[in-house]
Please model this.
Amino acid sequence: MIEYPLTKMRLLPIAGLSFACRAAFVHLKQIHAKVQGILTDLERKMTPASPEDEGMDLLDAAGGMEGVGRLRALLRQMHVLSSCSKALATWSAHDSIEECRRLLGGLGYMSYTGLSTLATDFAVMCSWEGDNHVMMLQCGRALAKVEASYGTGLLPALPDRY
Model:
């Protein structure tokens, strides 16, 4: 079936989008690992070695305001990327499942394909763990802040690629 030109034309963008989503989630996982490492290091530095020892306060453990700023920037990136990725991935997956079902014609409704059940079960993902519209508003808000910071001399909170 993949040999039909119309089928290729409809399925290849879906495959390409899934690879793009995977790349975004790999990047998100890398940011998460950095944040976990920083937080684990902070916890280690702030935990007293003995009952007589007080340990470090947060500002000293983070390396001053510069260290706190780097952590905040990473957390901001992680929040924006996870919000945008969740919304894009769930909307795209839901639409892709429906496209695959339609591509099969009447067979797409047959229970043995699993597509009709998958479409019904997956529909909830667009609102589970945060409604996609709210997620995209959070992303838009962060992008508006980056746009507003240009020309002010302040560094944007997010890299230009967002």
The CA atoms of residues 146 and 154 lie 10 Å apart. The chain has a mean pLDDT of 82. The chain has five helices and no strands. Helices lie at 5-46, 58-62, 64-103, 115-122, 132-149.
